[in-house]
Amino acid sequence: MDLQKPAPIQDASPRVSELRASDADRDRVADILREALAEGRLTADEHAERVEGVLHAKTVGELEVFIQDLPAAHQAPPAPAYTPVPPRPTPGAIPADADANVVAVFSSAMRKGRWRAGRRLHAYSVFGSVEIDLSEAIFEYQQVVIKAVSVFGDVRIRVPENVSLRGTGGGVLGNFEVDTLDSVESDAPVVYVDGWAVLGNIEARAKRGKVVADILDRAQRKVDKKLRKHLDR
User: Model pTM?
Assistant: First the structure.
């Protein structure tokens, strides 16, 4: 009896070299180039030309081209250092009154787009649906507390993927689900979700592809400053 071998499953995920380069990737390559210049492996002109290319590289593969002939490029890069999340705000540190209330009773309510997130938000859903989308919000404070109550309703919270997310709560014949998230940025906002779901649903998770822009702006300024320092050497 002849058996046909199943066709191999092709991995649709992109290769590492095809991924978009991050600021940390550019910073790592710039450090390798600086060390190569100091060791005499590169001339000053070669160093300046490669650093200029690093600034304009879009993918990880484009970055690796500038260091593929250097020994340091073949060493395993250190794992990103995660910084501890700031301790939870003590009672009274954040006012009990909400900066904004989002309420849905036999209806739906939504807060999304470019808006300023205060220190405390309250979301109430009674036979309704509430959506709080922080993926494009302006974080004026590092710590944001969201109090969510769902009674025969639904509360959905979405945050940028470069913040930290914590949750405390539960459900009574309902669902309370918060996907814990840790940011590698020491000054990233932390969103705390406190809630109870009574015959309802509360969930909070990251919105993939969405990031807090001002964190990236600060990080980019740090990288640019370091790269300018490398060019001046």
Answer: 0.58
